[in-house]
C-alpha cells in the first residue's frame, strides 16, 4: 500500500481511522491491530476492503490450508494474518517504511504456533521482482490497493510476475473513480476476472482473477 502523508480530516466517516487500534474477530481469534494514521497515513489503518476480504476468506470459497500466499500492500497486515490463521503460508508485503509497524502487528496477533507460517517482506511494486519466485504463489491477495493511478502499471507487472496460470488473485476494492474502472480494464487485458462478492453496506467489490496465457503459450 502506498504511503500517503497524514492530513487532519474532521469528517465522522474518517474518525475510526484515527483510533490507535482496531479490534476484530476472525478465524476464531480476537485480533487487535495497531493503527498510526499520523505517522504512516493510509498504510497504517484498517480499511473496509480488508475487513470484507477477511469476511470472504472465512466463507471458505477459496482453499487456504497449505496454500502459499502473498499479500500486496498489506498495511496493518489484517488480511495476511487472517489468511495464516486459516491455514495458508503467507508472505506479507509492503514498502520499507511500513515494515516495522507491519511486523509488530503480525507478532502481536499471531499465536506462537502460527508465527512460522508468515514472512514479512519489503516489496515495492515493479521493483526487484527477481527476489520473489516467478509464478511461485497459489494465491495473491490485495485489499484496497487500487487507488493511485501511477501505481497501476507496476502493480500489474508485479501480479504478472507472481502468478502462474493456476494462481488465484483476490482483490477487494471500492470503485470510487473513473481511474479505478480504468484499472479493471487494464487488469482484464492480462487476467480473466470475475466479481465474486459484493458487500453493499461498505460498497466493497471482490474480484477473483487468473492469469491469461501469453501469446507465446497459445
Report a brief summary of the structure.
The chain is α/β, with parallel strands linked by helices. The protein has 6 helices and 9 strands; from the N terminus they run ββααβαβαββαβαββ.
Report on the structure:
By secondary structure, this protein is of the alpha/beta class. Helix content is 27%, strand content 29%. It is built from 6 helices and 9 strands. It has helices spanning 37-40, 48-58, 78-85, 99-109, 152-162, 178-190; strands at residues 21-26, 29-34, 68-72, 89-94, 118-122, 137-143, 163-173, 191-199, 204-211. The strands form 2 sheets. The chain has a 7-stranded mixed β-sheet. The protein is globular, with a radius of gyration of 16 Å. The relative contact order is 0.15. The model is unreliable at 1-15 (pLDDT under 50).
Question: How do the strands and helices of this protein lay out in sequence?
Answer:
Blueprint lengths: L20 E6 L2 E6 L2 H4 L7 H11 L9 E5 L5 H8 L3 E6 L4 H11 L8 E5 L14 E7 L8 H11 E11 L4 H13 E9 L4 E8 L7
Parallel strand pairs: 3-4, 3-6, 4-5, 6-7
Antiparallel strand pairs: 1-2, 7-9, 8-9
Helix pairs in contact: 2-3
Q: Ends: how far apart?
A: 34 Å
What is the residue-averaged pLDDT? Answer: 89
Main sheet: which strands, in order across? 5-4-3-6-7-9-8
- Percent of residues in helical segments? 25-40%
User: Can you tell me the overall shape?
Assistant: globular
Q: Might you state the CATH topology name? A: Rossmann fold
Report the β-strand fraction as a percent range: 25-35%
- Provide the CATH superfamily: Vaccinia Virus protein VP39
How are helices and strands ordered from N to C? EEHHEHEHEEHEHEE
By DSSP, the count of extended strands is 9
* Largest sheet data: 7 strands, mixed
Number of helices: 6
Text of the CATH class: Alpha Beta
Q: Helix- and strand-based class?
A: alpha/beta
Rg: 16 Å
Which ranges are low-confidence, i.e. pLDDT below 50, for 5 or more consecutive residues?
Answer: 1-15
Count of discrete domains: 1
- If classified by CATH, what would the architecture be? 3-Layer(aba) Sandwich
